[in-house]
DNA sequence: CTGTTAGCGCATTCAC
DNA sequence: GTGAATGCGCTAACAG
């Protein structure tokens, strides 16, 4: 069966290009992969043939033969949550630029699905993976990472060294938020954290306390409470309790924007005006921040950047095998809007 | 080089399984693909070997040889937008159940990227694709669809017949929203649409007008205005203009939730209370709807269902080649919250 | 029912 | 510098 040089029927293959250019497929492969050992004219001829036939390499074949699949797995708890969506978006842009594509794996926060999915990803479909908020333990991740390039983004709990991870500078962000409040004259500054075992809680708490200490403000344990990170009655109740304190705070630093919304609702329910009676700072700079009235002062996490950084780290892992900085923290930024104001003079 | 039966080094292959089970690789392939023509004991033996070796088929090899890749492309304008995220989430769930995976292609609303991405998807990486809001013309889509199974979700403009598409029942949803307002006694009901060339605008407008007509309410052209679908000053201005009419509406049907937020802001700026002075209905039931104060009455689109439906349509396309219902409209649902109330008696 | 034989499209030694 | 040959892991006709 002679192969037709003119691609009329099916997709162009390397063979067609080779014969059109009057060279062997090996040579075509070389120029396709940017090898240096090809004569300029030969390269030229091949490229022309490639162009004429609209050829592009079949990734499956390449994967089977060479190893690389050009696909990167991304596990994500929930696709519809824009928080993760933004990280994903950053990662996807970076990958697009590298001419690689994403295999999406929504885990729904279920450990079992993570395991299944990762297992599948490893079975030749994918060159590596970006993991968001995995429920895996450090041990599992470490074992995984031994046979499969992986980087974790925004881990929920503290991970062992040796596991590549990129996250936001929680402590620094929290410090900035607290300092902002302090600079407005607030001294009784409440903090509503997330789940105590999460990094996002502990690290931000460190920043909060650090800022207070640096300003010589005595921390009041009554002004620190935990909540989950969601909007809802639970969060509002926590906020309410704090506002009902005998000596209530004049400002509250909510450890994420959802919590901040809860605080605002609780305040409204008590007839407190924001920011006049109570200043509120959030964390994340989610879409909420612009929607809410008044618009929320908050700490922006570089979510998209984290996604980009994760893939660039992963890419280096795929090549060098050895990278110097395995753990990366990206700076946050305080976004001042309308929910914070100088503390009221008379109270 | 004799292949080691015990898989100690690398990943198990079909060959290893075959020799372990004492059969040929062809037989293994058969049971792997659920072919009926295998003796029960043979099948049993093979399955045991598969289990013992922790074998699973290399998808690249299968793709190269057989055709199927087990991958479905999904183009999405912006991953971080939860509107699309929810559709994606539905699609991804359905795909997960089918043991297929998503190759994600964010297009950023750029036609050029869509073309590039689709081109790549077709080059053997993917078995078919789900397209969200493509900028492609009907002609392009039709050509595409000829050589590549594709279904469009939530098209922005009207598409030629023959192109498989799943969308929400815009008109019916709008009718329900308008009827709700009518049942509350409203007669002067404004409508703020999206871009006039979008289906979401025209179809919903039909529903709005239909409901009005059915109730014997004369439509007032002054009560219909267009906006883009985003939150922002432009939308607020449109709403403001309508509220400043000599004979303003007592209710406004915003064609999506973003616009509804704009209406609420414009109303607040005029000292109008919602829902006492003005009822507002949105469309989409986005996250906003629950956040906004008062919480928004709106028409819920079955976004996740649309995603699921799109893949199930696609699956059938991949098998039968012929499907009866190529165009599917999913029902919407009116969600009544706090932004609508009976029309004020005295005005 | 089961084994044999060919490739799928490409990357990759090796020679030349 | 370039070409011929070999195999990646699997599916798909064919035979038997």
Care to describe what's here?
- Two copies of one chain form a homodimer.
- Chain A is of the alpha/beta class and 347 residues long.
- In chain A, 44% of the residues lie in helices and 16% in strands.
- Chain A is built from 13 helices and twelve strands.
- Chain A has a six-stranded parallel sheet, sandwiched between helices. In chain A, strands 7-6-8-9-10-12 form a six-stranded mixed sheet, sandwiched between helices.
- In chain A, α11 links the parallel β8 and β9.
- The N and C termini of chain A lie far apart (93 Å).
- The N terminus of chain A is likely disordered.
- Chains A and B meet through α4, α5, β2, α6 and α12 of A and α4, α5, β2, α6 and α12 of B.
- β2 of chain A pairs antiparallel with β2 of chain B.
- The structure holds a DNA duplex (16 and 16 nucleotides).
Topology:
Two copies of one chain form a homodimer.
Chain A lengths: L13 H8 L3 H8 L7 H14 L5 H8 L4 E6 L5 H16 L3 E6 L4 H15 L2 E5 L5 H10 L2 E4 L11 E4 L1 H14 L5 E5 L5 H16 L9 E3 L6 H11 L7 E4 L2 H13 L9 E6 L3 H4 L5 E4 L2 H17 L7 E4 L2 E3 L12
Parallel strand pairs in A: 1-2, 1-3, 3-4, 4-5, 5-11, 6-7, 6-8, 8-9, 9-10
Antiparallel strand pairs in A: 10-12
The structure holds a DNA duplex (16 and 16 nucleotides).
What is the SS-derived class of chain A? alpha/beta
Q: What oligomeric state best describes the polypeptide chains here? A: homodimer
Series of secondary-structure elements of chain A, N-terminal to C-terminal = HHHHEHEHEHEEHEHEHEHEHEHEE
Helix % of chain A is 40-55%
Shape, principal axes of CA atoms of chain A: elongated
What is the tally of helical segments of chain A?
Answer: 13
Largest interface, per-chain counts?
A: A-B, 44 and 45 residues
Sheet with the most strands, sense and barrel status of chain A: 6 strands, parallel
The neighbouring-strand order within the major sheet of chain A is 2-1-3-4-5-11
How much strand content do the residues of chain A show? 15-25%
- Our measurement of the CA-to-CA distance between the termini of chain A, rounded to an integer number of angstroms, reads 93 Å
